[in-house]
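STRUCTURE REQUEST FORM
Protein name: Isocitrate dehydrogenase (NAD(+))
Source organism: Silvibacterium dinghuense
Requested output: structure tokens
Priority: standard
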Amino acid sequence: MTTQKTHKVTLIPGDGIGPEVSNAVVRILEASGVKFDWESYAAGAEAFEKYKEYIPKELYESIERNKVALKGPVTTPIGGGFSSINVTLRKKFELFANFRPIKNLPGLETRYPGVDLIIIRENTEGLYVGLEHEVVPGVVEALKIVTEKASTRIAKFAFEYARKHGRKKVHAIHKANIMKMSDGLFIRCSKNVSKDFPEITYGEHIVDNTCMQLVTNPYQYDVLLLENLYGDIVSDLCAAFVGGLGLVPGANLGHEAAIFEAVHGSAPDIAGKDIANPTALLQSAVLMLRHLDEEAAADRIQAAIEKVYTEKKTLTRDVHGTAGTTAFADAVIAAL
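Status: completed
Returned output:
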């Protein structure tokens, strides 16, 4: 039986297709019987037009209050413009663990059936945080920062997750053959943490070899533990095994707050056309429900998603269907 507790959650619909997929997911969540009190805020270019800030202080305050947010895609300008909203929020709330499960949906044929991987990525440092400046005209310096504290923290997260969920292997992914100090520190911390989890097999693979190994045989891996930039690249590669970024969920987790988000872009070319696939954000919302201890509702929604994919009648165009965003959401609600 679903609890009657009302969950206060910050909603960031995003831009492009964000509002459409967010609306679909909110409808499904509310149809599950779980009660929500949504606090909705714009971020990015839309927020700047309204508030002259890319992340309004009201949005920060909402996340601080509620501790949980559901976020649609927000456009990040390439080669200029404002800083990534995603990176800014992760740093602000110390969301140190980026968590992406990669698992096939039943009924959806891919080149790699039966994939079941967990990507755990350090989220607060490394090259990805964008600490860079122009030294002199034509020369840009980017800083890669790796600390023992953050490396140990993410390694503990990975091994504790593996132990709790019966995972058998953790591979730390690195480039320590070239970056001997920074990546060397990361794998030393991972190895030290592994000693406290003797029942879990620990391995280390160089990141470029890992990409080849994944494409050749993804089934050899279980949990992948990566630095920030490597994790971003490898998690997108792995998403292709199960049908693409439109399907896979993502969570940014810290000790004080959590943001659950679709990992795909805002796709402005198809915005407003009712053709976007809300599955990625919906599966992220399932992770959010589990975070909120709403396991029964999470199981029901996941079962409904899998039923819709198995029946293949109301899938969106990106997965070889003809249905739109609204029709897909209606089908999931009906399956509930």
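Reviewer notes: Residues 1-95+245-336 form a domain with the Isopropylmalate Dehydrogenase fold (CATH 3.40.718.10). The chain has eleven helices and twelve strands.
Form closed.
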